[in-house]
Amino acid sequence: MSRVVQWLGRQTRPADGVVVSATKPGDVERLASLAPGVECVFSEPGLCRQRNRALQVLRERADIVIFLDDDFVPRPDYFEALEARFAREADLVGATGGLIADGIHGRGFGFDEAVDMVERSMATPISLAERPIAALYGCNMAVRLSACEGLQFDERLPLYGWLEDIDFTHRLARRGKLVKSQAFSGVHMGVKGGRTSGRRLGYSQIVNPVYLLRKKSVPRSLALRLMRQNLLSNLVRSLRPEPHIDRAGRLKGNLIALGDVLRGRVDPERVMKL
Fold first, then answer.
1. Kind of pairing, strands 130-132 and 177-188?
2. Is residue 195 pLDDT above 70, yes or no?
3. Cα dihedral: 153, 154, 155, 159 (round 10)
4. CA dist 117 → 10, 56, 97, 128, 205 (Å)
5. Cα dihedral 250, 43, 157, 68 sign
6. Out of the domains of life, which is the source (predicted)?
7. Are 11 and 119 part of one and the same domain?
8. Does residue 37 form part of some domain?
9. Contact 169, 135 (CB under 8 A)
């Protein structure tokens, strides 16, 4: 995280401020020396709680808020291109950038690897391709704060907050336009450490879509597709699992969740007891 925050200092359009939302001072003790001026705020653990804490302190201080995961390395022109895109269209309420590479689907990338890919991408002309989308990808997404009045990330989605980005931005999309644009992009490292256990993630892969379906914040087709894909993927790949993914744990979590759903118990927070 410290290296990513330092990297933000290379933006051609510097951020007006950088807020790191953490759970305790020990999480950010290196930032004071490596990235002076960064503001650190604290909340109880959980992606949704931490993002809500950041929104709370920024409500009256910003127009556009960019949420970056601590393992996302943006191109140096990311902020400049994103600001220009929001300025062109008043009804644009959210945007997510293109991915030069996404390590979440494989072994993941180291920071130096990600920087190398970003720097090589700078040698080619920037693409202006974009398309409207129904929800934003949480590893890098920007929202217009004036459109977020009354919206929060759902804190009933604990820990890793599986699908919290889909839930929040599907609701945001009712207030304006969302796009995915290649004009601002970066590398999602997909760091494997510091994430929730395979069994807990597997549980959330089933229960969270059902919960959001009942909440009517995701389409039925999307919820069913996500559950089907994850269950089949974990079932098939558990026979020959990837070294960096706990497929057996995810499959076990899927099955526990299916049992709960069939019994009428749809509670994302039950994952805390697994």
1. antiparallel
2. no
3. -80
4. 15, 34, 16, 19, 31
5. negative
6. Bacteria
7. yes
8. yes
9. yes
220 and 132 in a single domain? The answer is: no
CA atoms of 205 and 230, how far apart (whole Å): 7
Instruction: Please state the rounded mean pLDDT for residues 224-250.
Output: 93
Q: Would you state the structure tokens that stand for residue 71, as one six-digit string?
A: 């393992």
Does residue 225 surpass a pLDDT of 90? yes
- Global model pTM greater than 0.90: yes
Shared domain check, 56 and 178: yes
Q: Which of 226, 218, 206, 225 is nearest to 266 (CA)?
A: 206
Question: What range defines the domain where residue 237 resides?
Answer: 198-273
The CATH number for 43's domain is 3.90.550.10
Confidence of residue 29 (pLDDT cuts 50, 70, 90): confident
Tokens of 183: 């004009």
What's CA 229's distance to the chain center, in Å? 19
Whether 129 and 208 map to the same domain: the answer is: no
128 touches 138 (CB < 8 A): no
Q: What is the DSSP string of 229-243?
A: HHHHHHHHHTSS--T
- Within a domain: 50: yes
